[in-house]
Amino acid sequence: MTQEVPAAPAEHRVPSLSALAELADEMATAEHGVIMVMGKGGVGKTTVAAALAIGLVQRGKTVHLSTTDPAAHLTSTLDGELPGLNVSRIDPKAETQRYIDKIMAAKAPKLDAQEQALLLEDLQSPCTEEVAVFHAFSRVVSEGRSAFVVLDTAPTGHSMLLMDATGAYHRQMTRELEGHGSARIVTPLMRLQDPAFTKIILVTLPEVTPVSQAAALQDDLRRARIEPYAWLLNKTVLGSGSRDPLLRARMRHERIQIERILSGLATKLFSLPWLPAPPVGLATLSRLVRASDAAEASVTKHELG
Fold first, then answer.
1. Could you give the 3-state DSSP secondary structure of residue 38?
2. Selection from 261, 279, 156, 283 nearest residue 206 by Cα
3. Mean per-residue pLDDT for 173-194?
4. C-alpha span between 226 and 223 (Å, rounded)
5. Strand, coil or helix: what is 143?
């Protein structure tokens, strides 16, 4: 008679999560669009954005990888060039100067010297930078109509200011079109609200505070009628197989956060394992999203102990 093997205790079971390579597979089913990687500072947005961009190139897509983050770690994270991948940065100072130059070139010829000086002084206000960055952001988002755009966004506070500007522009345009019958405009906000065009990936760490911060960001996005596509849990140690008491205690806390996320915060949850060294360079990042490595990379599909 075969003896029945008892199920593993609940604390040893690892929730089934999907790997980053599987997320890249899902993204690649579309022909084009925008993927925005969002979250608090320090959760690994740049790593995830760079890896997803590389994964899409691996799957035959043309990708523009850009960042709105003032820290701009993209170049050092990639540490190389890849055919099919265009990398850029929305630099607030450069975009502001470009915007000022454009306005001055258009209006200055019609003004005298004093009026030009007043216009230039007016353009030096902090509002000009917000407008300039918004216009640059809108240009990048519009590229998603014909190719893939992956955006490594600034930390939450900066990103929500950009979302506010996007919403303000949308309201202004819709007011101006009232009463124009069939006139129609597609604003950047409308593109972000379109789940077929824009996929928002919320990155967090498997800890109480980062998960709460991601949940608050999700609430802000939902108020703007933008629904995140998925969450990604970065630096998870579940599946490491460690017997170390401290790591096993961390695993127990991670399970609690995963259950919290899956019990109502997210319908799709992907994972990226804790790595002994930061994933820097094209070769390392490529391994995180290589399709053939999906099963191996999905460390949270193993059982502990």
1. strand
2. 261
3. 69
4. 7
5. helix
